[in-house]
Amino acid sequence: xxxxxxxxxxxxxxxxxxxxxxxxxxxxxxxxxxxxxxxxxxxxxxxxxxxxxxxxxxxxxxxxxxxxxxxxxxxxxxxxxxxxxxxxxxxxxxxxxxxxxxxxxxxxxxxxxxxxxxxxxxxxxxxxxxxxxxxxxxxxxxxxxxxxxxxxxxxxxxxxxxxxxxxxxxxxxxxxxxxxxxxxxxxxxxxxxxxxxxxxxxxxxxxxxxxxxxx
Length: 215
Known about the structure:
The chain is mainly α. Helix content is about 65%, strand content about 0%. The longest helix has 19 residues, at about 5-20.
């Protein structure tokens, strides 16, 4: 297969992945992602939940439960009690880590408010839009390590074009499994920039569920 034919086939595969499995995890968690303080806070919460050794489905359902309770901003979450947060986490299925996560959510809200005035765009600006520096700042939140920071950046690139294209280990694993280029720039050439987060999300799903494309 020559380079032109391979490129055409790669774009076809990427298009199919975006169309069939390209819903972002933020969308799955009922987050309408925009470059605004509230949805960026919600993405941080989702990233924290997804960082724990628990299924993605459970993390997503828990995020939806927290947001439906009304804690869509750090200020609103800080108005809740620790027990209210524990109960909401339990309703979402996050029972194994409910007590520690209830504390971490309050700590995260406090840090966002105190350091970045409730607006994670200020964190991005502090890092001059550099993905590596944003990742370092995100890891100042208790419960968010390299994996959680990567989750946040992988999704945030939909509204933060300065960090695009961003990939992580799971994206590359998914790309390898479907025969797509494993390098970030090679993947970025396959879809329009504003769809790259969708492609990344689809490849993560393939990496997590190798049988997803069977049949």
